[in-house]
Every structure is written in structure tokens, then in C-alpha cells.
Amino acid sequence: MSTRTLLLACALVPLTGAAQELDYTFVEMSYLSNELDAGPASVDGDGLGLKGSLAVSDSVFLFANYATQDYDFGVDASNYDLGAGMRWGLKPNLDLVGEAAWVHMEVEAGGFEFDDDGLGLGIGLRSRLNDSFELQGGMRYVDLEGSDTFLSFGGRYYFTNAIAAGFGLDLNDDTTGWNLGIRAEFGN
Fold it and tell me: SS3 for 51?
């Protein structure tokens, strides 16, 4: 899937002016599931993820993410990143979001350990369609031992102004991942 396809899909999102504002102060917990293509075989894993974000001004926020997953064949992986982001309001309830982060990853398998640090850069669109629905999509580049570019899509349904259930999908050439989560927002 190309960047143009992602941007076109996000541009076609219908917007309404009556929606709740986008919030950048939140905590979120998710169930994670991934499938990694490793040549002729694939490896499946699942686990938990935690996210947090804190708005420090109208346009700047800090964030942290942590995930741990257990894969087939006794492989355990965990990663976290710490970073900062900026939002630019393109229209009411439509933001262009950019992020930069320090990324750390650890993998353990059969007594062997691997860990690496690197850089993560992301850009995407986030839109609150109405008081109940939010959509987002974007692209993230991660430079660890090798580099990867991921496309991500997601949405949230708000039960209240501050509590939402969400679904996300992350894709690249070798990985297909999805998540289900619950978010509590504190800024609005």
C-alpha cells in the first residue's frame, strides 16, 4: 500500500464541525496480536501494550509506549519508546501529527538475547468524525539494526467524552499486527 493511498483515504474522511476536540493526554491498554513472515514460515505472537501521552501545550505532546509479546517457539519480545510529537490543526477535528522517539527492543529465544536502540519517526492524520467516532492513519519509520516502515490504521468508539474502545492495524512487508484496546482521556 502506497503513501498516496493512505493520504487519499484519510483526506476522504467526512468531517463534522460538532465533534469533540482531539485529546493528547491519555492512557491506553491493548491486547496485541502479530504475525511475522520469516521466509517460508510465519511466527505468531500475542501480548499486552501500554501507551501514554501528555499534552504540554496546544501543539506539543510527550508520549511513551511499552509492549510485551510471546511468540511461537519460545520467543519473547518487548519494546518501548519515549518521544515527543507535534500536532497541526488542518481543519476543525483534523490534525496532522508528527512524532520522533527513541526506541528500544529486546528479543529472547532459547537462552539467547538480542537488544537494540534506535530512532522512530512517524507522521499521520487523526480525525474526530463526531462525538462517538475517531479515525487515524499514518506511517512510521523505525531504524534499529535494520530499518522498517509501517503503515497503521485505527479507530475508536467513545462510550463517554473520555472513555473509548479502539482497534488498530499495523502493516509492513513482513509483519501484520492488530490490537484491541481501551483508552481513558484526561485533557478535555
Answer: strand
By CB atoms closer than 10 A (0-12, 13-18, 19+), residue 4 is exposed
Report domain extents, the chain.
3-185
Predicted confidence (pLDDT) per residue in 22-75, tens digit: 999 999 999 999 998 877 778 899 999 999 999 999 999 999 999 999 998 888
Record the pTM: 0.86
Specify whether the CB–CB gap between 71 and 45 falls below 8 A.
yes
Cβ atoms of 125 and 139 closer than 8 Å: no
Domain at 3-185, CATH homologous superfamily: OPCA outer membrane adhesin/invasin (2.40.128.100)
CB-based contacts of 176: which residues, under 8 Å, 6+ apart? 34, 35, 169, 170
